[in-house]
Amino acid sequence: MKRDVVALWLAARDPRTPILAKIAAAVVAAYALSPIDLIPDFVPVLGYLDDVIIVPLGIMLALRLMPTALMAEFREAATQRLDRPTSRAGLAFILALWLAATALLTWSLWPRRAL
Fold it and tell me: Smallest Cα–Cα separation from 66: which of 1, 6, 12?
């Protein structure tokens, strides 16, 4: 799975990748390579949901949209890479979701004065 995530990261940056496949690859790679998860791993059961269900389903979607020969090339390039990239865009997206959820929860629980 790690190799496919790096391969999708490479595919998202390649001009030969079809646009829908590029979008799917970029979203999956950004999420999978983000240093934080949407659901933190310490949350019982749900914490590993993204690792077990969300990321593999995203990879499957991106693979269906990607030409087979092109994906084979990206997998080969991913195998040869020694470093694993990180995604600052994925980090920013997850942080924005957490901030929005916190703001919405705070707003909904904030006491209001009766008129």
Answer: 12
